[in-house]
């Protein structure tokens, strides 16, 4: 069954933070290539992380391609040919992990924002100073490569502003590959400060878009976003962070993230159809989420 058809009938559980799962398994992700580096150095670790999420109850695995860009990897001496191979591998590893579990599973190819390539937190600010055409030129080669890899859906995620969303959707239009569009937000606005109504409206009329929503945000920002996104008539996708707070002085996370799973019922009650987690949500958190939604 296509994912879009499944969403017409029920809530579908997404996975959690790939980086979180890898860090919990003991991997160091401190360099600029982040989780994408393990596609090159330890692909089995990526497959294992996908499998852990599937076994926890996730029905959709988001690939480790968020940080994989031709420009970013070239800075670290990786050729364009090798980067394309890694993008394909990101999809095949998730697909391979799905073969080890029962039931229907889907693979979402992660399309991260331009700011992820910069590795400086720009995906939480936007307003890069690029023209729309510059953003189109950046996104097109990676998206076209991921489309060739055959994912079930493109996960256009952590997009901070409307300008970048428009550029990505220009590339996606006509591809024939189902796509969801998910913004990074603060309160009731994108990270770049645009109203969510304006942000979600850019998906109108693009046949490939099967869901809109938010990710990589505090759990308390989700409920309002679900309501606003629902006005588009499209299914809503949400996968926030755990709710823990980073203490820069102590260099440690504060809080236990228990609010993440507890709020899921409110999100689905407002109409969310794809629900998962982002930063600080490992397989254990997704297991709790899956149990909560099943109940």
From TrEMBL:
Domain Hcy-binding, first and last residues per copy: 1-293
Protein keywords: Metal-binding, Methyltransferase, Transferase, Zinc
Cofactor note: Binds 1 zinc ion per subunit.
Gene Ontology BP terms: methionine biosynthetic process; methylation; S-methylmethionine cycle
Stored Pfam families: S-methyl_trans
Claim: Protein biosynthesis is one of the keywords in the record: no
One term of GO molecular function: zinc ion binding
Binding site for Zn(2+): 216, 278-279
Record Gene3D superfamilies: Homocysteine-binding-like domain (3.20.20.330)
Source species, domain of life: Bacteria
Swiss-Prot/TrEMBL cofactor(s): Zn(2+)
Alphabetized InterPro entries for the sequence: BHMT-like (IPR017226), HCY_dom (IPR003726), HCY_dom_sf (IPR036589), Hcy_S-methyltransferase (IPR051486)
NCBIfam families linked: PRK09485.1
Protein name per UniProt: Homocysteine S-methyltransferase
Organism: Lentzea atacamensis
């Amino acid at each position: 069954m296509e994912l879009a058809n499944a969403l017409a009938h029920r809530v579908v559980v997404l996975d959690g933070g790939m980086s979180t799962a890898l860090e919990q398994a003991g991997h160091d992700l401190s360099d600029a290539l982040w989780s994408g580096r393990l596609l090159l150095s330890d692909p089995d670790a990526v497959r294992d992380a996908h499998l852990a999420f599937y076994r926890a109850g996730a029905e959709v695995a988001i690939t480790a391609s968020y940080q994989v860009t031709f420009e970013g990897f070239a800075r670290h001496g990786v050729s364009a040919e090798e980067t394309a191979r890694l993008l394909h591998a990101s999809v095949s590893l998730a697909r391979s992990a799905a073969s080890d579990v029962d039931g229907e599973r889907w693979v979402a190819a992660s399309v991260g924002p331009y700011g992820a390539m910069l590795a400086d937190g720009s995906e939480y600010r936007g307003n890069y100073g690029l023209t729309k055409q510059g953003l189109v030129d950046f996104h097109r080669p990676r998206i076209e490569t991921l489309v060739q890899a055959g994912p079930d859906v493109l996960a256009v995620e952590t997009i901070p502003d409307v300008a970048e969303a428009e550029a990505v959707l220009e590339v996606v239009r006509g591809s024939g590959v189902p796509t969801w569009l998910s913004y990074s937000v603060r309160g009731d606005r994108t990270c770049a400060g645009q109203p969510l109504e304006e942000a979600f409206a850019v998906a109108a009329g693009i046949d490939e878009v099967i869901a809109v929503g938010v990710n990589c945000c505090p759990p308390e920002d989700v409920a309002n976003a679900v309501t606003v996104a629902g006005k588009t008539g499209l299914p809503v996708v949400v996968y926030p962070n755990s709710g823990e707070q980073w203490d820069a002085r102590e260099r440690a996370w504060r809080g236990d993230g228990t609010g993440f799973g507890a709020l899921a019922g409110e999100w689905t009650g407002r109409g969310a159809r794809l629900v998962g987690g982002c930063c600080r949500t490992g397989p254990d958190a997704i297991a709790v989420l899956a149990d909560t939604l099943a109940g």
